[in-house]
């Protein structure tokens, strides 16, 4: 349990701040925390409330957490059990709307989270440029800025889809995707400042973590129009786990290339062929060839409620989920309750933004019979999320990355939800 | 280690294909022009050299120094074997050696010898990120040597080969032609 320090802090806080608090409302005991302490007064209208605090915390009744582990499919663990090549999964089943709270944003690190003093951090921009420049974080914050809400998805998300179906939660298999409002400087602004030479077609982005993670970014029209060097996430500074104090954000591209702890951009004429774009993050097909520079995350969707390992009762259910596409806006989402035999249009919840999680909803009355819930996303390019059968037909099952097939949740007669391939 | 002209030609062709497939465009007017915000400090050549740690497939960025298989065996045993196994095949971390002829099987083993397309990537990665508990602690001779050992173990170079800034970019990796540029969308709509 990683919440021990928080539990101690909370107990400390309660003991010292509010002797007037009444304890012992057993009906309001905290669920699932195991703390065994009451968090609420019997009648909040008859007791003065606690004092405000300088940096907010969620209600102690809210216990949603990321699930942590060592890479997709590896055993889970936190604290001493956590390896440095860590990943953690967003609890999609517990979230509302489209924004992922920064504290619940998924993580993937390749040698721990560096501790960086923003006053000492620099971003160097050089290579095929007329005037190589080096920037402090404060200087970048003085340049014209922009904000954009966009999803970020690890291309290893739903990695398990390439293997046999396991009985898992939506967090376990889909948790490597999150959405934030990102704020920073447009890449094009920095490129204007240094004056890019005409022969520059690629850009190396390098992080200042212990992996020195480096990726080659093609300077396509989309990249030049949309890439950002970000210092802000959801209105405040980036979280350390998200690249504090600077990260690259390439909307719609696989998570790994959105380089965190960004220290250097080097313009070049050719890709740099780093380990991350050759040995990793390439898609091995059944004929032994592999796709390379598969940067765009293709359209995808998943029903988050109800979802894996949950149990439902017969009656009304507002089926809800997320859909997204790295190629643009979600045009529509269809939902099936009979394993894809028939489809009906789900309702899209505003806002529907380009390269962003989009919330969809579908009213359903469960009659207690077996059912298989599916969703399929169609994006503004007309691309339709494939069935698993169609995807595997083309890619085989060795790809590891970029799995985006239609998800199937089987509803058993007893209301238990199970991950299956249908 | 031979036929450098051929491998260079292949390299250029491969990159050209990739660039075309990604529909990389020439930079628009805005990026090509220089706008002086008066923000940011010019970098000196000396400063750029200190920051510029990457290595390209054509060998750009490789430092002076050299390595041998024999020296590499010592470096590997002392600093790498604990995670990658005594011969590079055991793990528990990434398997570095072996895996030939497995890419088409249900259990592909992606190693340096079976999968990596460029030998220069070894320098870029090992120099910046290895060993895991002490990244950037190896000397150029140690990096070149451990690369020599890894390439020899994978039967890519001979035992008395010397690896340096001139020879490393010329090493022809077995899976050099194993990659195709992203053809997606590749699954037809129903």
Could you please describe the fold and organization of this structure?
The complex is a heterodimer of chains A (422) and B (190). With 422 residues, chain A is mostly beta strands. Chain A has 3 domains: 1-63, no CATH class; 122-290, Sulfite Oxidase, Chain A, domain 2 (Alpha-Beta Complex), CATH 3.90.420; 300-420, Immunoglobulin-like (Sandwich), CATH 2.60.40.650. Chain A is built from 6 helices and 24 strands. In chain A, strands 5-4-13-8-9 form a 5-stranded mixed sheet. In chain A, strands 6, 7, 10, 11 and 12 form a 5-stranded antiparallel sheet that branches. Chain A starts with a helix and ends with a strand. By secondary structure, chain B is mainly α. Chain B has a domain at 4-24 and 61-170: Cytochrome c-like domain (Cytochrome Bc1 Complex, Chain D, domain 2), CATH 1.10.760. In chain B, strands 2-3 form a two-stranded antiparallel sheet. In chain B, helix 4 crosses helix 7 and helix 6 (120-129) crosses helix 7 (140-153). The longest helix of chain B has 18 residues, at 4-21. Chain B is globular and about 55 Å long. Residues 1-21 and 23-31 of chain B have low confidence and may be disordered. Strand 15 of chain A pairs parallel with strand 4 (179-181) of chain B.
């Amino acid at each position: 349990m990683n919440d021990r320090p928080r539990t101690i802090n909370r107990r400390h806080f309660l003991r010292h701040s509010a002797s007037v608090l009444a304890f012992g409302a057993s009906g309001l005991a905290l669920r699932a925390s195991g703390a065994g302490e009451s968090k609420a007064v019997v009648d909040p209208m008859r007791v003065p409330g606690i004092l405000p605090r300088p940096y907010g915390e969620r209600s102690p009744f809210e216990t949603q957490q990321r699930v942590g582990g060592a890479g997709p499919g590896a055993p889970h663990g936190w604290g001493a059990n956590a390896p440095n090549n860590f990943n953690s999964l967003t609890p999609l089943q517990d979230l509302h709307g489209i924004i992922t709270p920064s504290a619940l944003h998924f993580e993937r690190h390749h040698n721990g989270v560096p501790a960086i003093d923003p006053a000492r951090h620099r971003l160097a921009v050089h290579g095929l440029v007329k005037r190589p420049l080096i920037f402090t974080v404060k200087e970048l914050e003085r340049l014209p800025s922009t904000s954009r809400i966009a999803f970020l998805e690890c291309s290893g998300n739903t990695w398990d889809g390439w293997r046999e179906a396991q009985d898992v939660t939506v967090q376990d298999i889909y948790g490597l995707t999150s959405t934030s409002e990102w704020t920073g400087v447009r890449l094009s602004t920095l490129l204007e400042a240094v004056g890019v030479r005409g022969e520059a077609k690629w850009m190396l982005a390098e992080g200042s973590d212990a992996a020195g993670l480096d990726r080659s970014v093609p300077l396509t029209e989309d990249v030049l129009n949309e890439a950002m060097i970000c210092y802000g996430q959801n209105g405040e500074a980036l979280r350390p786990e998200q690249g504090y104090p600077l990260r690259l954000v390439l909307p719609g591209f696989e998570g790994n290339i959105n380089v965190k702890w960004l220290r250097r951009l080097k313009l070049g004429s050719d890709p740099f062929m780093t380990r991350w774009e050759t040995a990793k993050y390439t898609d091995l097909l059944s004929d032994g060839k592999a796709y390379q520079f598969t940067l765009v995350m293709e359209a995808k969707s998943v029903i988050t409620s109800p979802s894996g390992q949950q149990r439902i009762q017969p009656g009304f259910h507002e089926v809800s989920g997320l859909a997204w596409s790295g190629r643009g806006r979600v045009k529509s989402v269809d939902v099936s309750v009979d394993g894809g035999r028939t489809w009906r249009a789900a309702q899209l919840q505003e806002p529907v933004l380009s390269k962003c999680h989009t919330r969809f909803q579908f009213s359903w009355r469960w009659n207690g019979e077996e059912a298989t819930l599916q969703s399929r996303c169609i994006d503004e390019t007309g691309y339709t999320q494939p069935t698993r059968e169609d995807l595997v037909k083309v890619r085989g099952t060795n790809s590891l990355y970029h799995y985006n097939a239609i998800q199937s949740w089987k509803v058993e007669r007893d209301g238990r939800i199970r991950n299956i391939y249908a | 280690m031979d036929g450098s002209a051929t491998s260079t030609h292949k390299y250029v062709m491969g990159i050209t294909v990739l660039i075309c497939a990604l529909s990389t465009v020439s930079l628009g007017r805005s990026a090509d022009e220089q706008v002086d915000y008066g923000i940011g400090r010019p970098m000196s050549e000396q400063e750029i050299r200190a920051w510029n740690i990457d290595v390209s497939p054509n060998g750009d960025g490789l430092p002076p120094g050299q390595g041998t298989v024999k020296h590499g065996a010592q470096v590997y045993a002392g600093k790498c074997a604990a995670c990658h196994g005594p011969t590079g095949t055991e793990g528990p971390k990434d398997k570095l050696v072996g895996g030939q002829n497995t890419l088409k099987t249900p259990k592909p083993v992606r190693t340096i010898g079976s999968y990596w397309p460029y030998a220069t990537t070894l320098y870029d990665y090992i120099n910046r990120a290895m060993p895991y508990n002490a990244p950037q602690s190896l000397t150029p001779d140690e990096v070149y040597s451990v690369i020599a050992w890894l390439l020899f173990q994978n039967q890519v170079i001979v035992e008395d080969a010397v690896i340096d800034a001139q020879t490393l970019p010329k090493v022809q990796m077995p899976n050099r032609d194993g990659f195709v540029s992203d053809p997606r969308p590749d699954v037809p709509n129903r």
